[in-house]
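Deliverable D4.2, example record:
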Amino acid sequence: MELYFELLKKPVFSIADAEQFYKTKESARTAVKRLIAQGLVKKIRNNLYTCISGETDAPVANKYQIASAITETACVSHHTALEYYGFSDQVIYDVYVASESAFHSFEFDGYTYICVKSKLKDGIETVQYSGGIRITDRERTLVDCLKDMDRIGGIEETLAAISMMNRLNEKKLLFYLEEYDNQFLFQKAGYLLQPFSKPLGLSEDFFRACKAKIGRSRRYLTKDFTQGSYVKEWQLIVPNSLYALKNGVEVGNDRV
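Output generated by the structure prediction step:
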């Protein structure tokens, strides 16, 4: 029981964390197995555990703490990060985790943890007094959601999140856009953020910088729609349904 109270100090722990209280790794492993059998500890995945609260009978670790502990470079990202920041009005049971090293998706306590392989090292913050939560900052979160819009979340949810955001750091936004160095990403960022430029605090310089990177290719804004209106300024074919969002914000007044 003494080990249980020591492990309670870490929302997510490994056998190595338990080993400091024993002479051998095998002894630590045996002790953790005993706690699991007693219902005091639950295995999350291979060599990743959390204690069970005696008050709530639920895992001590929340999904953000678990996501941050899966690999050495793991951090909460995409729409899970939006949810953490309060930019989502939905409860999402897919937990997106950016990580330099890949891991297989797995389920724990009703959530599915999904790896989004990433080589970008910048834009990750460790939240103070959070029990180890690592998360992409707001600007990188937005850029990641735009980049992976067709794979994660979809255009409507991405736009709904943008409409809930307030002032962002445009220098950071441009830095992450340039790090990804993707013409299509500059097109999407310029077009989708332009109607929200005032609440986001984005200057004309930001949109000029995006336009300078879009090249000459014409693209569909999203693969989910193959028909729509052509926006000459951003060289995008945009679904007509995009112009009447559920939050009442009109997008795409610059149609030609």
